[in-house]
Write a structure and sequence with these properties.
The chain is mainly alpha-helical. Helices cover about 45% and strands about 0% of the residues.
């Protein structure tokens, strides 16, 4: 599931759309684990960042990117 969501976020961002993930729910429902992952499972932030850097190397040298995690 994290892989599918990260693919959608990256595709949308590289198509020119802003991408935002809003993680909302009850305490203990898994928001932090979904976003940050665990020692054995990668989270959404790590997966999106890896995809961003992998795709970014194929762009021209004067292309810039901006990502924020708040």
């Amino acid at each position: 599931m994290v892989g599918d969501l990260s693919d959608f976020i990256l595709t949308s961002a590289f198509d020119g759309y802003n991408a935002c993930v809003f993680s909302y729910g009850a305490s203990g429902s898994g928001k932090s684990i979904t976003m940050f992952g665990t020692q054995t499972a990668r989270g959404l932030i790590q997966t999106v960042c890896d995809g961003l850097f992998t795709k970014a190397v194929s762009f021209e040298d004067d292309t810039s990117f901006r990502a924020e995690v708040r």
